[in-house]
Amino acid sequence: MDLGIRGKRALVCASSKGLGLGCAEALAEAGVDLVMNARGAEALEAAAADIRARFGVDVVTVACDVTTAEGQEKLLSAAEGVDILVNNAGGPPPGLWSDWERDDFIAALDANMLTPITLMKAMMPGMIEKGWGRVVNITSQSVKAPIAVLGLSNSARAGLTGYVAGTARQVAEHGVIINNILPGIHDTDRALSLDTGVSQQQGIDLTQARANREATIPARRYGTRQEFGATCAFLCSQHAGFIVGQNILLDGGATNATL
Ligand code: NAP
């Protein structure tokens, strides 16, 4: 399917690895020029070089922390006038409800709620002016069904989801379409670190920790970054103009719900 976005330009935050990289690759395959970002320059440059070589698109890299004001300033200047924004950042650490203090919540809100809101607020006026734009926020399955140890994530992402629900309906008339993708477990470094934690806690090896988790998923496997990226690229495509403010769950059926 032709996604109809060849020649457009996208900022994909936190995209040297994992789900962000999957989105960058799928957009590049559709002919979209990219601004890619991560904190670590080495992996970022390697990912950008690989994408340039495979898809022949223009890729600008900005090595910075997207959750800081300085990082956001750098990104906004490199990505001025983009048509597509994919919001992403690392997830907050796991823990117990009684351990989290105000500062822990502020950090989680900054990274996973206020950062995407800041970037949307800065970039959507340009999209509105052009009468076309796409925003995809990478959130989490935990928005739909809480993961108790990820209480900081549950809280911050719920806040972002509420903001998007209203805002998406305010900007849609200008051709600017905002949606969220909710990943369940995907085969990335984040999943590896979650499984490592489980294996240490339960005294089992890593392969067993993964197998135990896979057994809880109706698809009996982890998602791939390529599948995730393909959904993201579709939501950024010409065909997605009537999908407004939705929360698309990619979890292999793990969330047991009818709707
Ligand atoms: P990942 O494999 O660990 O990749 C994270 C990517 O983001 C890397 O490129 C990393 O590069 C970059 N990054 C992290 N923090 C950043 C920051 N502050 N500024 C700029 N770049 C940053 O993680 P992932 O699995 O793709 O997860 C992406 C998001 O989806 C996370 O918020 C995660 O909580 C959420 N999620 C993931 C899963 C899953 O199963 N994978 C499930 C539910 C939710 P640097 O470290 O070099 O900055």
UniProtKB/TrEMBL annotation:
The keyword Oxidoreductase applies. Pfam families: adh_short_C2. InterPro entries: NAD(P)-bd_dom_sf, SDR, SDR_fam. The gene is fabG_6. It comes from Tritonibacter multivorans. PANTHER family: 3-OXOACYL-(ACYL-CARRIER-PROTEIN) REDUCTASE (PTHR42879), NADPH-DEPENDENT REDUCTASE BACG (PTHR42879:SF6). This is 3-oxoacyl-[acyl-carrier-protein] reductase FabG. The keyword Transmembrane does not apply. GO terms for molecular function: 3-oxoacyl-[acyl-carrier-protein] reductase (NADPH) activity. Belongs to the short-chain dehydrogenases/reductases (SDR) family. Keywords: Oxidoreductase. Its EC number is 1.1.1.100. Signal peptide: none annotated.
